[in-house]
Amino acid sequence: VTDHDRSANHGLLSLADHQLATAAHAPGVTVRRLDAAGFHDEVLSSGARGPGVAEQTSTIEALLHGAYEGDVTFAELARHGDLGLGTVQHLDGEMLLVDGEFLQVRADGTVHPIPPETRTPFAVLCRFRPDAAHTLAGPMGWPALQALLDDHGEPHLVQALRIDAHLARVELRSVPSQTPPYPPLIEVVAHQRSWQATDVRGTLVGFRFPGQLEGLEVAGLHVHFVSDDRTVGGHVTDLELISGTLWVQQLDELHVEVPDGVDVEPSGARDLGATIRSVEGGRAGRG
Ligand SMILES: [Zn+2]
C-alpha cells in the first residue's frame, strides 16, 4: 500500500473496529481481530483447535470503499484453509478455493490458477470438514437452496458449503481489475460483466453469514462457481440445479485479519445493507 493510498483512505480502521465490536455480540459467532503477524502465527497453533473457524482477510466494507490492495499472499492463505472465496489483488476478478486450489475468474469469465505470491484484498476460507453429504434432487432454484440451508444450518452461525452439481443454468458475474485511485465497489459493479452457463457440471463453494456480521461479511448466501472442466466460473447471482451433492459445515468463530493500510474515509449516515445488496447483486446476494 502506497503512502498515497494511506492518506487517501484514512479512517477505515475505526470503522472496522466498530464493525468488529458490533459483530462480537452476534450470538453464536465469536469474532476475533488479527493483524498480519497474528494471522500468520495463528495457523501454527490451529492444529489443536480443529474445525469450526472461518478466517478472512479484510472486510466487505473495506472492499466497498475501494480497498483493493491486499497484504496477504495466497501462499499464506493456503496455510489457513482448503475451501473459500474472495477476490484477487486490485479486484482482479472473483476468487474461489476448491480442494486447496486457488482459482481466479477474470472479467471475461475465463478461469486461471493463482500464483502463490499474488495477494488478495479480500478472502474468506476455512478448513472444510463437513457433516454428512446431502443428495439434492432438482429442479431447485436459489430460494429452494436457501431453504435447504435453513434446514441444515444454525441461523446464528456461519455455514460453509460445497455443492458438486449438474446445473441447468447458472448466472455468473465477475469484475475487472482496477487501477488507483480506486473507485468504490458500487461503481465497479456498475460495469461488471455477467454471463450464463447452461447444462454445466461443476462445483459451488460459499458461505452463509448471519445478519449480525453484515459489513464484515456479506450477510446471507455468497457463492462462487467453477465448472469441472475449468472453462467457466464466477460469482453466482442465480441458478437452476438439476442434481447435486451438498456438504455443509457449521462455523462458530470468525477471525478477521485487518490489513495495516487498508482503510477508507469515514462514512457518515450509511445504509450498509442496501449497499452490499446492490453490489452483491441479484438474488444470490440475499440472505
Ligand atoms: Zn462473490
Bound compounds: zinc ion
**What structural category arises from helix and sheet content?**
alpha+beta
- Determine the number of helices (DSSP H or I, runs of at least 4 residues): 8
Mean pLDDT, nearest integer? Answer: 83
Would you identify the regions where 5 or more consecutive residues have pLDDT less than 50?
Answer: 1-16, 263-270, 282-287
- Kindly state the number of beta strands: 15
Element order: H for helix, E for strand: HHEHEHEHEEEEEEEHEHEEEEH
Quaternary state of this entry equals single chain
What is the rounded Rg? 17 Å
The biggest sheet amounts to: 8 strands, mixed
Determine the strand fraction and express it as a percent band: 35-45%
First and last CA, distance: 33 Å
The shape is globular
Provide a quick synopsis of the model.
By secondary structure, the chain is an alpha+beta fold. It is 21% helix and 38% strand. It is built from eight helices and 15 strands.
Structural account:
With 287 residues, the protein is an alpha+beta fold. The chain is 21% helix and 38% strand. The protein has eight helices and 15 strands. It has helices at residues 3-8, 12-23, 36-42, 60-64, 74-78, 142-152, 185-189, 272-280; strands spanning 30-34, 53-57, 72-73, 83-87, 94-98, 101-105, 111-113, 119-120, 123-126, 134-141, 158-174, 193-209, 220-227, 233-251, 253-257. It has an eight-stranded mixed β-sheet with strand order 1-15-2-9-4-5-6-7. Strands 10, 11, 12, 13 and 14 form a five-stranded antiparallel β-sheet that branches. It has a two-stranded antiparallel sheet with strand order 3-8. Strand 6 and strand 7 (111-113) form a beta hairpin. The protein starts with a helix and ends in a 7-residue tail after the last helix. Mean pLDDT is 83; it is low at 1-16, 263-270 and 282-287. Residues 85, 94, 222, 224, 235 line the site of zinc ion (ZN). The site of zinc ion (ZN) has 5 residues, from strand 13.
